[in-house]
Amino acid sequence: MLHIEKVNNIGIRVSERAVSVASYGRLNFRTLSDTGFEKAIPS
Predict the structure, then answer these.
(1) Is residue 25 a contact partner of residue 31, using CB atoms and an 8 Å limit?
(2) What pLDDT does residue 39 have?
(3) For the chain, how are helix, strand and coil distributed in percent, rounded to 5?
(4) What is the pTM of this model?
């Protein structure tokens, strides 16, 4: 089994910021900094 002691940085692309923040909050993730959220241009 993999034993993780510390996570230094993680970046996850999402389409709905509020839903994602709430979901990760339930997993005890917390936001330390926020560089903003811009909706991606569809390709």
Answers:
(1) no
(2) 64
(3) 25, 0, 75
(4) 0.53
CA dist., res. 11 & res. 13, Å (int): 7
What is the CA angle 40-41-43, rounded to 5? 120
**Two tokens, residue 27:** 């997993």
Q: Where are the alpha helices (DSSP H) in 1-43?
A: 17-26
In the block, tokens 């917390």 appear at: 30
Mean pLDDT of 17-33: 88
Phi, psi of 37 (to 5 degrees): -140, 120
